[in-house]
Amino acid sequence: MKNISYRDRSRLPYRVVEHLPTGRGAAYSSKMAELLVDQASDELMRFAREHHTLKRAFDAEKSLLPLPSWLKTDMLGDCVLYWLRDGSSSDTHVRAIPAA
């Protein structure tokens, strides 16, 4: 199997924000502050929870990510941000990331 191209990698979700009480999420590309989907699929959210490379409390001010339409400011304290891949992620891991 050939290596996954930079172009193909850039089309996949890079970060996912999740509102923990509801499980709702939104996906972002690797391009700075680009919202890919306002409502991430259940499959992508499951992958984010189980296979993330980094997980942090979501800080909307520091992240500079646009908020999805459903995420209200009073919900921000209950959110986490997952990174789905990093520079050491294998092609197998990257290929496993569900589409947004």
Class derived from helix and strand content? alpha+beta
Question: Largest beta sheet, briefly?
Answer: 5 strands, antiparallel
What is the alpha-carbon Rg in Å?
13 Å
Poorly predicted sequence stretches spanning 5 or more consecutive residues: none
Q: Overall pLDDT, averaged?
A: 91
Q: Report helical residue fraction.
A: 25-40%
* Strand and helix order: HEEEHEHEH
Distance between the termini: 23 Å
Number of strands: 5
Task: Quickly count the helices.
Answer: 4
Assembly status: single chain
Strand portion:
15-25%
Write down the overall geometry.
globular
Strand order of the largest sheet: 3-2-1-5-4
Overall number of structural domains: 1
What does the model show?
- The structure is a single chain.
- The protein is α+β, with helices and mostly antiparallel strands.
- It has one domain (6-96).
- Helix content is 26%, strand content 22%.
- It has four helices and five strands.
- The chain has a five-stranded antiparallel sheet, covered by helices on one side.
- Strand 1 (15-19) and strand 2 (24-28) form a beta hairpin.
- It is globular, with a radius of gyration of 13 Å.
- The two termini are 23 Å apart.
